[in-house]
Write a structure and sequence with these properties.
Length: about 110
């Protein structure tokens, strides 16, 4: 639902919904569950579309860390998170990547 709100231009509501979902999933599954990582990944996507690339990187890296610990090496979610971390890192290094590039790694 958070990504839908973001697509509709309702960024703050999207972030609020995702942060609420994050807390619910952390309480339900623990901090290192792939479902928790999915919410971190979604938050990273939203922040990657803004000037908050450092926050985006932190969320993406957290998702990647969880996926690396819990999923098989060739899992698609692991690949997408890794690609997002790399794209955000590249943007931070070069500051030239258009925001639309981040949408290429969404689920």
């Amino acid at each position: 639902m958070g990504l839908v709100k973001h697509a509709l231009g309702q960024r703050e509501e999207a972030i609020s919904l995702l942060k609420e979902a994050l807390e619910i999933r952390r309480q339900s599954y623990g901090d290192d569950h792939p479902d928790v990582a999915q919410v971190y990944y979604s938050l990273a996507l939203i922040y990657a579309d803004t000037d908050d690339k450092q926050i985006a990187f932190q969320y993406a890296q957290t998702a990647l860390n969880i996926y690396q610990a819990k999923l098989p090496k060739h899992h698609p979610s692991l690949k997408r998170a890794s690609e997002l971390v790399e794209r955000i890192s590249s943007y931070q290094r070069e500051s030239t990547l258009p925001q639309s590039e981040f949408h290429n790694v969404q689920e």
